[in-house]
Amino acid sequence: MSLNTDRSYKMKLRDVENAFKYRRIPYPKRSVELIALLAISCTFFLFMHTNKLNSRLKEMEVKLQPSEFSALGLTGNHISGHDAGKHDDINTLHGTYQYLKSTGQMATLNVRDLNNTRKAQMELVFFNRVPKVGSQTFMELLRRLSERNNFQFHRDAVQKVETIRLAEDQQQEMAEVISELPEPSVFIKHVCFTNFTKFNLPTPIYLNVVRDPVERVISWFYYVRAPWYFVERKAAFPDLPLPHPAWLKKDFETCVLSGDQECTYTQGVTVEGIGDHRRQSLFFCGHDYECTPFNTVGALERAKFAVEQQYAVVGVLEDFNTTLSVLEKYVPRFFEGVRDIYASK
User: Fold this and answer.
1) pLDDT tens, 160-174?
2) What is the span of the domain harbouring residue 7?
3) Which of 134, 176, 165 is nearest to 318 (CA)?
4) Mean per-residue pLDDT for 246-266?
5) Domain contains 24
6) Is the domain of 164 the same as that of 15?
7) Residues 49, 78, 87, 190: which is the catalytic one?
8) Are residues 54 and 193 in the same domain?
9) Residues 228, 334: contact at Cβ < 8 Å?
10) DSSP string computed for 67-136
11) Catalytic site residue 244?
């Protein structure tokens, strides 16, 4: 082979190599551009979805007028619908006082009897928080109060599947773990009311907060559809599947009117398979099966009995300032200065 032929062969070989080389370069570039485009599209979708959810929440939100009954430790047992028509000023402290005095109920009310904090057998607050009642705010307040009032702050770890009703052995295990915390301490967890004395353990200081039940259900409906909720869950549990876009776009009003199972609230039903924490009373009634029927008198009465006999304070989200005042007076070891901290945040 001549020198010119050999040189021509090498040039052709190099041209072929270059052709393959430059044909391979555009593919990864296009892949990167495609991934970037998808990322931007997803970000835009999440942004629009978040704005839409915020708009819906603002439309659904109903600002209830504050009530001062919780400041007196009163429940629905004290004022019947028949008696309510006898007074016009019952929604003020003065009106409440005058009503109770005129009906003879003042003689049976005693501040000491109303304050269940004195029944506690250890310096430990057990906040078995109801979901979507402002408990995130309460946790932040307790975290700051722990530094101010010198107590330990503890909360349950995030779980892949959260179970609020526990078997008896699980209840005992949880109660034993809480009882072994150093005093004074606060422990926070989404769980039904647990009777520590049932397991021969000292009684903690029980606290909780409630909210208008309809508002709470609506809040939960949109909470589980918030993009940041899935980001946090996915970061903690990477194997969790992402929800279908149609489910994310569902609005509460359409869900109710269409008879969707997720928004069907049938009295007496025990299992819906939805997992939406719709039973607010379950957190006070307890772990027993009798507490599971939805919106029944029996479950409600058991819950009310536990509140009256066991809980130091059950606050009301719609009357937040009064709730803080009651906490500061009834549980001062832990809540002294809570109103100042809340006002300064």
Assistant:
1) 777 899 999 999 999
2) 3-60
3) 134
4) 91
5) yes
6) no
7) 190
8) no
9) no
10) --HHHHT--TTSS-HHHHTT-S-TTSHHHHHHHHHHTTGGGG--HHHH-GGGG-SSSEEEE-PPTTSSHH
11) no
